[in-house]
Amino acid sequence: MTILVTGGAGFIGANFILDWHAAGGEPVVNLDKLTYAGNLANLASLEGDPRHHFVHGDIGDGALVARLLAEHRVRAVLNFAAESHVDRSIAGPAAFVQTNVAGTFGLLEAARDYWNALPPDEQGAWRFLHVSTDEVYGTLAADAPAFTETTAYAPNSPYSASKAASDHLVRAWHHTYGLPVLTTNCSNNYGRFQFPEKLIPLVIHKALAGEALPVYGDGRQVRDWLHVSDHCAAIRRVLASGTPGGVWNVGGLNQKTNLEVVQAICALLDAARPRSDGASYAAQIRFVADRPGHDRRYAIDAAKLRRELGWEPRHDFESGLRQTVAWYLEHEDWVRNVTSGAYRDWAARQYAA
Ligand code: NAD
Ligand code: TYD
Is the pTM of this model over 0.85? Predict the structure, then answer.
């Protein structure tokens, strides 16, 4: 038997597949459309490994998904595939509705057909795990309690609205059709293989390139940062032991303002690769126009995941960030490889102002 991972060439999906194999997991079929964010170099260490079977395709392609589920006798679908960047969703929301909403719908329908035809004992063990985000809950005031699994959905960006819609579809496929689904809503991830459009790798890349470090608005927005391998461990735990129909928040209790994160990266780079003029990389920080509709604060209450499934994050932010900065410094070839023409065009438009 195998598991089907969608979006496995992206940041979290690739980390998940590598960690899954390191933890002794069964073979993986990896279905990925290879958008600008999909990068098979993330999985170079699995080249020729029979435990990884890559398929280039779209989660919304029902016939393809049906064939993969049957051919590989898939026992679980893990849906990481998505358009994932808020700024891109503001500039062009159509792809977000297409993949995150229509794509998830197509995947659910193919999963339902396959699951319906399974013998009852296999039906009971079968799972559809949907990887989602804390951004579906909207924004928090500075002193408000963290998001729990019962916080009302209030998405504010085209990205979070499309993820919220996909979460609702997943929920409905359980309540209406009995599909054994599991949903995780995670806070901001950081770590190796993250596309350098997201804050942490973007700042590392721009700092080393001698470019301005763009901080939106006043830089006092708060995000709750979690190391990607802690997120992957939580997903393995939910897949193994979560009760179908359940929702689990995943977060690291690492609330930081964006400015604190950017300053911490600058300090790490100052120590690891000092600028030739002796000045701090922090001199490159620039406050730029704010993101429209920018959510002020996210914070996750992961008590349910701790209590029910015994999950604890293993990385604290300080050592996790140090390890992450070191990884990007050691993998400048990876960064060069992903900073393709498409990415440069996007970045030029985004930061022209
Ligand atoms: P990413 O943008 O790095 O990767 C997305 C992957 O999905 C890429 O490999 C891309 O090629 C693939 N993909 C896109 N559209 C597809 C389609 N129609 N069919 C098949 N493949 C497609 O994203 P990520 O940061 O790895 O996020 C993975 C998942 O985790 C997403 O669902 C995202 O919403 C969720 N999430 C991300 C974070 C975070 O901080 N990055 C936090 C919480 C939840
Ligand atoms: P990002 O990594 O895009 O994740 P998300 O929007 O999903 O939280 O951004 C993290 C935070 O950093 C967010 O508050 C926006 C801010 N940010 C900047 O200040 N400058 C930037 O260039 C980017 C990409 C993000």
Answer: yes
* Nearest CA-CA partner of 247 in 156, 158, 147: 147
Ligand nearest to the CA of 99: 1
CA angle 86, 89, 90 (to 5 degrees): 95
Distances in Å between the alpha carbon of 81 and those of 30, 147, 151? 10, 24, 24
237 CB near ligand 1 (under 6 Å): no
What is the β-pairing status of strands 189-190 and 74-79? unpaired
Structure tokens at 59: 């989660």
6 lines ligand 1 (CB under 6 A): yes
User: For the chain, how many residues are written?
Assistant: 353
Calpha distance 197→90 (Å, rounded): 14
What tens digit of pLDDT does each residue of 145-204 get? 999 999 999 999 999 999 999 999 999 999 999 999 999 999 999 999 999 999 999 999
Percent of the chain, pLDDT > 70?
96
For residue 279, with 0-12 CB atoms within 10 Å meaning exposed, 13-18 middle and 19 or more buried, which class applies? exposed
Domains (range + CATH), the chain: 2-350 (3.40.50.720)
* Integer angstrom CA distances of residue 218 from 246, 257, 282, 286, 288: 37, 10, 15, 10, 8
49/72 Cα distance (integer angstroms): 16
Asked if residues 217 and 292 have their Cβ atoms less than 8 Å apart, the reply is: no
Following DSSP, what letter does each residue of 58-99 receive, concatenated? -TT-HHHHHHHHHHTTEEEEEE------HHHHHH-THHHIII
Q: Is the CB of 43 under 6 A from ligand 1?
A: no
